[in-house]
Design goal:
The chain has 335 residues and is mainly α. It is built from 13 helices and no strands. It folds into two domains: 254 residues, MFS general substrate transporter like domains (Growth Hormone, Chain: A); 51 residues. It is a multi-pass membrane protein.
Length: 335
């Protein structure tokens, strides 16, 4: 839950920090994207670091770092300070996310492994979509800063359980080189693209800064791909994209993230600013997403090893697509 709690900020309580710190919608978008950019930039490298220094060791260190970053978010005096703390949260969250998958694979085997992955996915999904509800209650009662401060006891529990239960013996890849240029180029490309996309709403698509951001992002992305293709141990092995199953998995994951989680922040603004809902009411409006995730994850988990991925993933994406199509009719007066 801690690693995914960055998305909890996308809920109804998230809107209140921009009002409190004076950041507006643009500031809120950067508070959200600072986390995701940092997480996307370092996640693959975090996997390489885990192989070299130990998954258990990196996981525990990342939990501590995430707790400290959450504390910094909770006491941030300005939007830039909050964005910087969110970057630190994203870096730590990437390490947590990268190591938990490997730790589950090491700890469980057979059908139990499929169940463990399903439980992890369900927990992460619940944390994402339940975040707006919890955030709404916390914001209404204690203030938006407690959205981040709540991570401190969660991180303490994760640290205690991980220290006592995670396997201590691992095979380390001491000779593996770490790609430094990859995450830097990738993060710079994402910043350029995100800046251009976000600024276009206020500046227009022909604005020099917007065009400059988009162009620099595309150019840096090209440089990133060129550098990665020349390295012996790249952050991203481009040969993986020759596998159709790998490409399909990534496209499906992108569709879910963009189609569902990307909507949370905008629906939060819509529910409060256009429909006039309270913080708690806006958070409760996300409950129709929470219940299906809870039920589906628990029900499908034991059968993941028996069902063809084409069926499960395909059916899920069809349902998501149908839901998004129904949302095309939503306007400021829908209610």
């Amino acid at each position: 839950m801690a690693a995914r709690s960055g998305y909890c900020f996308l809920g109804s309580a998230a809107r209140n920090d921009s009002r409190d710190l004076g950041g507006g919608l643009a500031g809120l978008q950067w508070v959200v994207n600072a986390y995701t950019i940092a997480m996307a930039a370092i996640q693959l490298t975090a996997g390489a670091l885990a192989d070299r220094f130990g998954r258990r060791r990196l996981f525990l260190a990342a939990v501590v770092a995430f707790a400290l970053a959450s504390l910094a978010c909770g006491v941030a005096p300005t939007v830039p300070a909050l964005v910087a703390a969110r970057v630190a949260q994203g870096l730590a969250g990437a390490a947590i996310f990268a190591t938990t998958l490997a730790l589950i694979g090491e700890t469980y085997a057979g059908p139990a492994r499929g169940t463990a992955f399903a439980v992890r996915g369900t927990t992460a999904g619940i944390a994402v979509v339940l975040g707006p509800v919890v955030g709404g209650l916390l914001t209404d009662a204690l203030g938006w800063r407690w959205i981040f401060l709540l991570n401190l006891p969660v991180a303490a529990a994760a640290l205690l359980i991980g220290w006592r239960s995670l396997p201590g013996r691992e095979r380390l890849e001491s000779g593996r080189r770490i790609d430094v240029a990859g995450p830097i180029l990738w993060a710079a490309a994402l910043v350029g693209l995100v800046y251009g996309l976000l600024s276009s709403a206020t500046r227009g698509w022909t604005d020099p800064l917007v065009l400059g951001g988009l162009l620099s992002g595309v150019l840096l992305l090209g440089v990133f791909l060129f550098v990665e293709s020349r390295l012996d141990a790249p952050m991203l092995d481009l040969r993986m994209f020759a596998d159709r199953r790998f490409v399909g998995t990534q496209l499906g994951s992108f569709a879910v993230q963009a189609g569902i989680f990307g909507l949370l922040v905008y629906f939060s603004v819509y529910l409060q600013d256009h429909l006039g809902k309270s913080v708690i009411a806006a958070g409760l409006s996300f409950l129709p997403i929470v219940v299906p995730i809870m039920l589906a994850g628990a029900a499908v988990g034991p059968f993941l090893d028996r069902l063809p991925p084409r069926l499960t993933v395909g059916a899920a994406l069809v349902l998501i697509g149908a839901g998004l199509l129904l949302m095309l009719g939503v306007t400021a007066r829908t209610g």
